Amino acid sequence: DGGITQSPKYLFRKEGQNVTLSCEQNLNHDAMYWYRQDPGQGLRLIYYSQIVNDFQKGDIAEGYSVSREKKESFPLTVTSAQKNPTAFYLCASSTGYNEQFFGPGTRLTVL
Amino acid sequence: DAKTTQPPSMDCAEGRAANLPCNHSTISGNEYVYWYRQIHSQGPQYIIHGLKNNETNEMASLIITEDRKSSTLILPHATLRDTAVYYCIVRGGFMNYGGATNKLIFGTGTLLAVQP
Fold first, then answer.
1. What is the pLDDT of residue B2?
2. CB-count burial class (<10 Å; 0-12, 13-18, 19+) for B21
3. What pLDDT score was predicted for residue B10?
4. Residue of B nearest to A33 (CA)
5. Does A80 contact chain B (CB < 8 Å)?
6. Of the candidates B39, B7, B34, which has an alpha carbon nearest to the alpha carbon of residue B21?
7. Interchain contact, A97 vs B101, CB within 8 Å
8. Sign of CA pseudo-dihedral B75, B81, B85, B89
């Protein structure tokens, strides 16, 4: 089945630690995105990548980093510089200008 | 991207049509209207999009007013599984290398509660 997978579903980290969230897609999509969602709020764009080896900052990139070494993969690292990292993180992909398909999300909690 | 305005919540009886309004009075000529929905604790799901003509697919219908300043998403026979937050998004109709126009700007959406 084609789709987007995110792992893990739930993630706990201690304050001051970096953590990497996985996002993989087998839809052959060129573009991939990372969003953050806080309770009762809409999604906000963290980073996006239109092609391999290239990515752009979104609206709230501070404290996050990404890489795009393979078309299928777009991991997101939440660094210790992110002041309030507890949130629901969503990855999406699209081909060209078509609609974005979303993964199931990772819920990150900082203890 | 144009800003959208949606009611925070709506109720609908199971089996009846759910009509979700969206105001996008500042929409420009090349911007599309997109609808997504998000069931609790899941990723958003694409529903439908349109430019100026009405659109229909297996999930819903999209009615866009002639002046394009507002639209309505119609779920013809709502079921309990349609309970979700529905997002109306306006997005540019072209893509550049930077990809900026591929951004989806989500508001807080409308929480549709389908009642048995």
1. 62
2. middle
3. 97
4. B103
5. no
6. B7
7. yes
8. negative
Residues 29-58 of B with CB under 8 A from A: 34, 41-46, 49
Distance CA A12, CA A86 (A): 9
| Position A33 confidence tier, pLDDT thresholds 50, 70, 90 | very high
**B112 CA to centre of own chain:** 12
**Please, are residues A93 and A49 in contact by the beta-carbon 8 Å criterion?**
no
Determine contact: B94 vs chain A, CB below 8 A: yes
Report the share of chain B in percent with pLDDT over 70. 89
Helix (H, G, I), strand (E, B) or coil at B14: coil
Contact: B104, A48; criterion CB under 8 Å:
no
pLDDT band at B97 (very low <50, low <70, confident <90, very high): very low
**Cis status, amide bond into A8, omega within 30 of 0:** yes
Confidence of residue A41 (pLDDT cuts 50, 70, 90): confident
Q: What are phi and psi of B101, to 5 degrees?
A: -80, -5
- Take residue B49 and report the two structure tokens written for it: 């999009």
